[in-house]
Structure formats: structure tokens, C-alpha cells
From TrEMBL:
UniProt-listed Pfam families: SpoIID (PF08486)
Domain Sporulation stage II protein D amidase enhancer LytB N-terminal: 123-212
Lineage start: Bacteria, Pseudomonadati, Bacteroidota, Flavobacteriia, Flavobacteriales
Protein name: SpoIID/LytB domain-containing protein
Signal peptide segment: none
Entry superkingdom: Bacteria
GO biological process annotation, one example: sporulation resulting in formation of a cellular spore
InterPro entries, per the entry: SpoIID/LytB, SpoIID/LytB_N
Length: 389
């Protein structure tokens, strides 16, 4: 019991700030392009519209607004009138089931739907668009965006815990810009409301559960599409080792949709890249033969495993390969690259986790298979010990 109290107190000390601020999350939308004009309309419920803190109007039903930058201010207008120009515009939900649709003007971006509130201001002459969402709605949106529909409840629980852990670990990533996370892949993909009841239930049933390491720190909850049968150590892809991101055999990813792939590239482009950018002596007969017939018996991190000159992840990025788990087959003026897996290979394989869920493994089994020596702990424990102390 004393050990449990000590662990919980350590958890409170380490993550106390997350316990205080985790109910809502501010997410920067369309952060890749940051449009100058958007169309906003309700999808359900109604919204009170504020300009610089003052109530301007209520948006409901079939109403819509175009919100644009005009002469350094934000103009709010519809087809018939302008409601004024402001430094900041907020849409605050009037009903707990309210949702809004938003789409940039003059963009190929599809219309998105979000819950909760919307805040718009100007940053570097473009719109800074922030969805202030409950953590539950944010996590559900990430799970939907990252995973899609049609999966087992236990898989959605896995993705919920991963998404929540990531969000809290990186909660202050964009603090200087006035929000927490963005909708890009370098945070977590967050582009849709369209989650189903199974996702909503998975988020609810795993509420407040996060992954921590042996030191009671939130883990880096890395994941990818398919491991190709074996995950890779974090230090073999990134510069830092993580004791919980170790290579594991992963038979569950075999024969899944993204297990195998092929790509043909120019033989000249391949050798030129290795010589020009990596300093490899491609004039050497033995080295050239090795390069053109590269096919390791076991997954490795570098082209020449004994050195650290040519990282396979560099090849993956340069030639837009699906993974670093591949063999090279020279064919006249081209080479055929035959690979396994999809993604960086660190942490959890989504397709492997989907297979495990179908086979009856629960979310704890799945997470402990892919992450070494981690613990699943509820954030609500923090609040309990905070009240006691």
C-alpha cells in the first residue's frame, strides 16, 4: 500500500499540471496552410458569436458566416450583411451537442466538422483558428482521424490511450502561440468529428488512462501502420533511446493490408544518392554488388550495419519508401525494392494491434506487447492524492 501511495505521489508531482489542465485542449486547425478566409456554419445546435468579447449574434440552423481578414481585422459576414470587424472572433456552443462545419475558402481542403468552441484571431497576416475542445472529444476525433471506422472496440481503446498520452505529454507544444496542439501529423491528425458510437464508448471506458514508464513519466506513444513483422528500437530510427520503445517480434502484422510493398527506382538515382550525399564509394566492385543486392537476414537500421553513415531511414525518406524493412534487387537500369511494413517501425503497429483485438486480446495485452515495461495509470489518481495533500 505504501508503495502504491509513493507511486501515486510521484505521479502527481510529475504530472500535476496535466491533471489541472487536461479537461480541455486548444487545437490549431488548418495549421499547414493557415487560410485567410473560412466558411463556418452549424452542423447541430447553435453558437453564440462574440467579437472582441461582445455578443454579436447567434448562429443556428442553415445560417453561415464567411470569416476573413480585411485591413488587418477579422470581418464576419453572411450573404446579406456584415457583422463588423474585430481582433478576435469566438463561436461558443449554446448547447452541449453543438457542432460546426468549417472549410477554407479557395482551398482543396474538404469540409471538416468539430464539436465544442471555435476561436479565430490573426497571426502573421493569416487566420489562427483554434478549436477549444473537451479532451474526450479531442481524443475521439484523433482516434477517428488516425484509425477510421470498422475496428474492434479493444483497438479503439488502445488508440484512445495512445492519443491521450501523446496529447498530455506534448500539451505545451504550441504554448507560445496560444494553443496546445495542432491538427498536423507532427502533433496528431485531427480532421474530423465523424467518430462512431464504438469510438465514443472506447474513449469513455478508458477515460483518464495514460501510459507511463518505470519512472512514472508519460511515454512517447509512438505508433505506425505496420511493422513488417518486427518493430525497431527508437534509437535505430531517432537519436534518442527509450527503454519502452524496443524491438519486438510482431507476427500479428504479417499478411495485413500494408504488410508488403514494392517500388521501382532508377539504378543511377540510387547509386548517385549514396555516393553524392552519403559518401559511399560506389566505384568499388564489392560495395556496388552489396548495394545492388542488399537483403539483410534480420531487420537493421543502417545500410552498413557496422557503421552509422547510411541510415535506412534516410533512404526511406529520400526515395519515399514505405519502411526501412526492405531488400534491393538490381534489374538492368532500375532496381526493385521489395519491402515489408509501413511507417517508421517504432512502437505500436496499428495493423498488428487491430489483428490482436480481433483475436480477443484486450487493450492492456496489446499495449504491453508493443511497449516494454510500461504502466497504465488513471489520471484521476492525481486528483485524489492532490485532495489528500
Amino acid at each position: 500500500m505504501r508503495a502504491l501511495i509513493l507511486i501515486s505521489l510521484l505521479f502527481w508531482i510529475t504530472l500535476g499540471s496535466f491533471g489541472q489542465h487536461s479537461d480541455r485542449v486548444r487545437v490549431g486547425l488548418f495549421w499547414n496552410e493557415r487560410p485567410a478566409s473560412v466558411i463556418v456554419r452549424p452542423d447541430a445546435g447553435a453558437y453564440q458569436v462574440y467579437g472582441d468579447g461582445k455578443l454579436v449574434t447567434t448562429l443556428h440552423g442553415m445560417g453561415l458566416f464567411q470569416i476573413s481578414i480585411q485591413n488587418g481585422l477579422i470581418e464576419v459576414k453572411n450573404f446579406s450583411k456584415s457583422y463588423g470587424r474585430f481582433k478576435q472572433v469566438k463561436l461558443v456552443e449554446r448547447d452541449p451537442f453543438s457542432r460546426f462545419k468549417i472549410k477554407p475558402v479557395s482551398s482543396d481542403q474538404i469540409q471538416r466538422i468539430y464539436e465544442d468552441d471555435l476561436e479565430i484571431s490573426i497571426y502573421q497576416n493569416r487566420l489562427k483558428i483554434i478549436n477549444e475542445a473537451t479532451m474526450a472529444n479531442y481524443v475521439a476525433g484523433v482516434v477517428q482521424s488516425e484509425s477510421g471506422n470498422g475496428h474492434e472496440p479493444e483497438f479503439y481503446k488502445v488508440q484512445s490511450i495512445i492519443s491521450r498520452t501523446y496529447a498530455l505529454k506534448h500539451f505545451d507544444k504550441y504554448e507560445k502561440l496560444g494553443f496546445n496542439l495542432c491538427d498536423r501529423v507532427n502533433s496528431q491528425v485531427y480532421k474530423t468529428y465523424g467518430y462512431n458510437d464504438t469510438i465514443k464508448q472506447a474513449v469513455k471506458e478508458t477515460r483518464d488512462i495514460v501510459m507511463v514508464d518505470a519512472e512514472i513519466n508519460l511515454v512517447t506513444a509512438a505508433f505506425h501502420s505496420n511493422s513488417g513483422g518486427e518493430t525497431i528500437n527508437s534509437e535505430d530510427t531517432w537519436t534518442y533511446p527509450r527503454p519502452y520503445l524496443k524491438s519486438v517480434e510482431d507476427s500479428f502484422s504479417l499478411c495485413m493490408p500494408h504488410f508488403e510493398w514494392e517500388k521501382t527506382i532508377s539504378r543511377s538515382d540510387y547509386l548517385t544518392y549514396l555516393h553524392k550525399f552519403k559518401g559511399v564509394d560506389t566505384t568499388s566492385f564489392s560495395i556496388k554488388r552489396y548495394l545492388l543486392n542488399f537483403c539483410p537476414e534480420k531487420r537493421q537500421s543502417h545500410l552498413f550495419q557496422q557503421d552509422s553513415i547510411v541510415a535506412l531511414d534516410d533512404l526511406r525518406k529520400h526515395f519515399e519508401l514505405r519502411s526501412t524493412h526492405f531488400c534491393v534487387d538490381a534489374q538492368n537500369d532500375s532496381i526493385l525494392i521489395v519491402g515489408k511494413g509501413f511507417g517508421h517501425g517504432v512502437g505500436l503497429s496499428q495493423e498488428g494491434a487491430m489483428k490482436m483485438a480481433k483475436l480477443g486480446y484486450n487493450y492492456s495485452d496489446i499495449l504491453h506487447h508493443y511497449y516494454s515495461n510500461i504502466h497504465l495509470i488513471k489520471l484521476s489518481v492525481i486528483d485524489f492524492f492532490k485532495a489528500e495533500n
